[in-house]
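@channel sequence for tomorrow's demo:
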Amino acid sequence: MKVAVIGGGAAGFFAALSVKKHHPKAYVILFEKSKKLLSKVKISGGGRCNVTNGSTSIKELSDAYPRGRRLMKKALKQFSTSDTWKWYEMRGVLLKTEEDGRVFPQSDNSSSIVQCLIKDAEKNRIEIRMGEGVLSIQRKKNHCYKLHTKTEVITFEKVIIACGGSTKRSGFDWISVLDHKIIAPVPSLFTFNMPNDKIQSLMGVVAQNVSVNIQGQSIKSEGPLLITHWGMSGPAILKLSAFGARILHDLEYSFKVNVNWVNVLNHDDVKSQLIDIILKHPKKQLSSFRAFDLPDRLWLFLLDKFQLPHDKQWSDLGKKGIYKLIAMLCSDEYQVSGKTTFKEEFVTCGGVSLDSINTTTMESIVSPGLYFAGEVLDIDGITGGYNFQAAWTTGFISGKLA
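C-alpha cells (generated this afternoon):
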C-alpha cells in the first residue's frame, strides 16, 4: 500500500508515523512544500514547544476547543494527552508539567521534539520530500488519488492531508474541488490593541484572576490578564479571542471589553468585602491599602481612572465612593481597536468542515481513502498545548485507519 502524507508539520509527521506503526509494510511518502520541517514546532512556546496539556480529563480537554469540541471529545478517547506523554518518553524525550498545566520537554528546547520526530521517521523509512508541494489532487474511479507536484504525478491508494491552516479561503481551493465544504478561515488566539489608552503605561503588570467579556455578547473567559504596551494579553484575553474569533472578525476588531478585575460576579459580595475593609482599616488611605490584593500600579491606575483621591481614607468613602469602587473593580470598560497575533504562534479557525469527514476515522465522507489531520480541519484550541494535542490525536487516528 502506498500512502501520501501532505504536510511536514506536527500532524503530518504523526500521521506518517502512525501509518508505519499500524501498517509496517506501507510505503509512506511525506510531502513538505517548504525547505523546513516542523517549523511551527520549533518556534512554539518561545522555542520550548508546548507539547500538550497536563490535564487527563476528556471533558476538560475537549472544552478547550472552540471549534471541534465534539470531535476532540471522541478522538481523545483514542489518543489522549497521557498517550502523547508516553509516546515521547518511550523515545527518550522526558516531559514536565508546569504550574499552569502546560507540558514541555525537560530540556526546555523544542529541538528535542523536532529531532525525536525526524529520527523516528528515518527509523521507519518514511520518505520525506522537502521543497515539493502538492499542486493538485485528482480522484480516480478506483478510489486511488493522483497527486501532481512540480516534477511528477504519483498515484496513491491512500492520502492524508495535514498541510496546516491558511489565512485565506483560496488556500483550500485545491481541497474544495473534491467537494469538501470549507469554512472560511479567520484569526484566532490574538491580543487586544487599545491605542492611546493610558492602561498601556502599566506594561508588564499581571492581574492573576480576572473575568472578561465582550460587551453586548455572551462570550466571556477568566484567568490571568497581562497588560502590554499595545493593550491586553494573557490567558484570559487569548481564550476570549479564540471563543469569539468569528464574532470579533465580523466586528472588524472594534468593540468594548468589560473587565472584572476581581473575578467576583456578585456585586453584593464585593460590597461586603469593601465594608469589611472600612471596618477593619478605617484610617488607611486608599492608596496604601489595596482591595483584593490587586497589583500596586494597577490599583493606583484604577483609582485615578475612577477619580478616587489617593489620600482619601477608607472611612470617608461613603455610599457613593463604595459604589464607585464596585464599578471600578467589577465593570471596568476598555475600547479595543485592532488585534495583534500572539507571538509567532498564528492560529486560525476555519478549514475543512467537520461535516465533510467521518469524525471517528478522519476519513472524508465524499472521497473515500482521503483523510485529514491537524489544523487543516476546522478545529482549534486555546493556548496551553491544545492545538498540538489536536495534531497528535488526529494524526494518530488518520494514520491508523488510512
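heads up for whoever presents: The chain has a mean pLDDT of 96.
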